[in-house]
Amino acid sequence: MSAKHQQYLDLFNEIDQEKDGEIYLKEVVLYLRALNEEIDNLEVKDLLNKYETRGMEVLDFSEFMDIMAQLDGVGWVKASKKESQEITELDMAEIFNMIDVDKSGSVSRREAKLAGKLLAKRFGIKDIGSWIKQTDRNGDGKLSQKEFMKSILAFTNNNTA
Predict the structure, then answer these.
(1) What is the CB neighbour count within 10 angstroms for residue 29?
(2) Residue 107: its pLDDT value, please?
(3) DSSP letter (8 states) at residue 108
(4) 156, exposed or middle or buried, with CB in 10 Å at 0-12, 13-18, 19+?
(5) Mean pLDDT of all residues in the chain?
(6) Predicted confidence (pLDDT) per residue in 62-107, tens digit
(7) Nearest to 118 by CA among 20, 54, 35
(8) What is the pLDDT of residue 51?
(9) What interhelical angle do 89-99 and 145-160 show, nearest 10?
């Protein structure tokens, strides 16, 4: 097995939390956006946007490998792991905008659950329901960008303390 094949398999298995050999394309897009080092690369953005329109399409490993090969071909690069002190406001704003799928300016419980793997992997947030309940200061059941960013900062600082 080649190193690239193993890298794709490891990434697929990280995304496939249910371990059933299938993942949703929308999950892949969210996950890859969070892990991309050069999100300013327009070709990478265009491909991810194209995939995102396919929504809840289910992928097996073979299809995932095809998508990753296309993304690698246009310059997708997995980000190195950041320590919480390195997570900037811009990083948090980009992640907020990624999770805010309907572009309402707030993250609903449903959007947060869709991005659950990303939140768990990037920030260690495992219980989305509890996290939203603790973070939602105005009680509307959604997180504003300010609530989201304040929570991420507090959460990452608590996890590294």
Answers:
(1) 21
(2) 92
(3) E
(4) buried
(5) 79
(6) 989 998 888 888 877 776 655 544 667 777 787 888 888 888 999 9
(7) 35
(8) 76
(9) 120
- Within 8 A by CB and 6+ apart from 58, the residues are 22, 23, 24, 25
d(CA 127, CA 124): 9
CA-CA-CA-CA torsion sign (136, 137, 140, 144): negative
2, 37, 38, 54 from 45: Cα distances, Å: 27, 12, 9, 15
Tell me the pLDDT tens digit for each residue of 16-70: 877 888 888 777 777 777 776 555 557 777 777 777 667 667 888 998 999 888 8
Its sign, for the CA torsion 33, 36, 41, 43, is negative
The letter for the amino acid at 19 is K
Tokens of 141: 């059941």
